[in-house]
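From the pipeline queue, job 12 of 40. The input is one protein chain; the requested action is below.

Action: predict structure.
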Amino acid sequence: MRIDFVEIRNFRRLAKIRIDLSDKTTLFVGANNSGKTTAITVLRYFLTHQKAFSAYDIPLDLWLRIEELGRAFEEDQEGELPYSWHDLLPSLDVWLTVSEDEIHHVAHLIPTLDWTPDQGVGVRLQLEPKDPDELLQSYLITKTAVCDTLSAKTDSTDDGKSGKAETDDKDKSDKTCNGFSLWPENLMDYLKKRIAGSLTVNAYLLDPSKKTGPKNGVAQPQKLPDTAEPLDDNPFKGLIRIDEVPAHRGLSDYSGGGDEELQEQGDRGRKQLLTSQLRTYYGKHLDPLKAPEPSDIKALEAMHEAQTAFDERLKACFKDPFFELEGLGYPGVANPRLTISTNIKPVEGLNHQSAVQYDLTPDQDTAKYRLPEQCNGLGYQNLISMVFRLISYRDGWMKVGKAAREEEDGTHQASPPPLHLVLMEEPEAHLHVQVQQVFIRKAYEVLRNHKALKDNTVLSTQLVVSTHSSHIAHEVDFANMRYFRRHPARKSGQTPCSTVVNLSEVFGEPDDTARFVSRYLQATHADLFFADGAIIVEGAAERMLIPHFIRNHYPALHSCYITLLEVGGSHAHRLKPFIEHLGLNTLIITDIDAVEKETRSKATPKIGSDLITSNNVLKSWHPKREGFDGLVALTEDGKELSYDDFFSIRVAYQTPLKVKIGGKNVDACPSTFEDALVFENIDHFRKATGGGLIKKFKKAIEDNDDIDSLQESLLAALSKGSKAQFALDMLFSQDPASINVPTYIHDGLKWIEERLLKRQQEVALPKKEQADEAAGE
C-alpha cells in the first residue's frame, strides 16, 4: 500500500494542485515562494494537526466570496447562499494504491460493491463548518449587536435626536457600519477570531470512477454529491503512521548556561536537544520499569539496591533535623512520624544538559575530556538529530523494545500500520554540501533499516522532502522530483498560485532526449530547479564572461536569481520540453553557425550568399528558420517565443553591425561570440596586452584593413586557439566593466531582465492595461 497522489485545493497559493508521490522518496523543488513548504504544511495540518488552521490559510481571493456569503445571509436568512462552503475552504484528497491482499486494511474506505483494487481508494479531508446554520446565526447575532451599539452611539450625538432609532434596518446597518467599525465587520473578519471553534475537518469517501487527471497543470478534484455524509472516524487510523521533521529544529550553539538555567527554561527550551530525543526514545523503547523482561531483572535489582542504600544514608543524614522537630511537639503522640524514601527512575539519569557528550579521547578510558552536545558544531548537531529522529520514527512504527507491549489509545494493536509517511522540511539547514548529499542518499535507508522491513512489500515507507538545495536535488533521481511552478494572479485582487510538474512525465517514454537532460542536470545544473530564469550558452567563453557582463552592466538582472547553463554543440534544443514544463523564462545565447547550403561546410557569414544555419535551436525550437538571410533580418520581437504573459524564451545570435576599420564604418557579420566581441571592442583590442588569442586578435587588427580579411584572420586564429583560455586572459588582463557587451547579447540580457522584473509583480495585466501602464511611464 502507498499514497499514489494527493490533490490540494484552496490552501494559500495552492488553488488546485496534484502531487504524485514516488514509491520511496519524493523531492519538492522550485523557486522561492513557489509553494513547497506550503505543500508540506497542508499535509501536516490535515493529517496530524487539524486544529492548526487559521483564516490566513484561505486564499485571499476567496475572502471576498466569504464576505459576500455573509452579506447574502444578512439580507435574507432563508435565501439560497451564493457559494458552497466546500468551494471556499481548504481540502486534501488522498488517493491510495492497494493490492488484493491489502483489501482488509481499507474495507471501511471501499465506496461501492463493484469496486476493484486497481481503482484505488480516495478520501477527502475537508475543512468545513461544524454546523453551517449555527455558524451563520452566531455571526449574525454578533454583527447585529455591534451595529446596534454603533447605532446607539451615532443617535446619541445626532443633533439632539438622542435615543431615536432608525426604522429601516438596512439604512441602520449602512449608517452604523461604514467607516469606523467594531469586530466583526464581515463574515471573514468573524472567522479570523472564531475559526478554531467554528470549523472542523471531516472525511468523505471519493468515487474512483470520477478520478481525472490535471488539465494544463491544474488538478480536477471531483465534486462531492449533495448527499455525501462524513465518515464517523479518522479514515487513516491504523492505516497510516505519519511523522515529520520540521525545518525549525530548535538547535542552537551552546549558551554557556548551567543545568539550573536549562531547568528553568523547562521542557520547551530543551525539547529539541539530542538529549531530549534520547530520553524520549529510552522511555518508549528501553525503560526496564515498563513491562519488565528477564533481561531487565539485573538492572532492576541494581536499582533496588541503590535505592535501599540511598534511603539508609538519607535517614542517617536527616536523623538530627527530624529529632529537633520532635522536640517542638511535632509530630506528637497521635501523628505519624516523618521518613524519607527515594524513587530512582532510569530515565531521570538522562534529564540533564550533559547526558549526551562528545568524547574527545575515545581511545582512553577516561571521562576527563568530554564536552556536552551543545559544544559540537551546529551542522553535526543537526545531522545527528535528524538521523536519530528517523531512527525513532522507524522504531516507533515497528514497536521496537518496550513499545511492542504498550497499548495505544487503550487498545492493543497487533501489527503496525501498513504505511509509514515521513514529512521532512529543508534538511539542508546548517549542513555542508557533502553532508547534504550523503544524508539524502541515506535517509530512506535509515527508515527501512529494520529486519522486518528489509524485503517486506506489505509494509511501505514514503519519504516526502522539501528543499531549497541544488546539492540535494543533485542526488535524487529525476523522476522523483516534483517541481512547483509559480503562476501570477490573472487580475488585481486574485492570489498568485502554483502548479506542480511531475518531472517523471516531462518526456513520456524514456528516449535519448530524456536521458540527456536528466544526466546533464544531475551532472551540472540542479540549481535550475530553484532559479527565476535561465540563460543557456554554447561555449566556455560565454559561460565565464557573461556573469561579469551582468555584474558590471545590468544591476537589476544581477539581483535576480538566474542560472547560467553551458550546453555545447547541438544539444541545447534537447532542453525544450523541460524548459516548457518548468515555465522558466529562458534566454538562449547561441551562434548563428552559417554553412554552405550544398556542402554543409562552414562559411564566412555574408548576406546574399545563399547560406543556411546548422544550429538546431534556430531550426527546430525557435524561430524555426534555416536561411541565414532570414535569420539576420528577423526583428527583435520575432526572436521571442511567448507561451503566456509570464513565460517566454528568446534566442540571441550574431547579427550584422557597424565596425570602424581603416578609418571607415563598414558592415560586418560576426559568426561567433569571440569575433563579435572583437568587432565591438576594436579600439580596446588594439591596445590590449596579453598572449594567446588576445595577442593574435591584436595582430589581426593591425595587419588587416578590410573587414573580410579581418574576419577570416580572426576565425583562423579561433580554429587553433583555446576559447576558454581567451576568456580567462580577458578576465586577467582587462577590466570587464570596460568591455562593450556584444549587441546581440546586450539585447538578450535586457530582455530577460525586463521579463524577470515583470514576473516580480505576480499579476498578469491584460494587454490594454499593459499598454496604459507603459503610456503612463
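Job complete. The longest strand covers residues 2-11.
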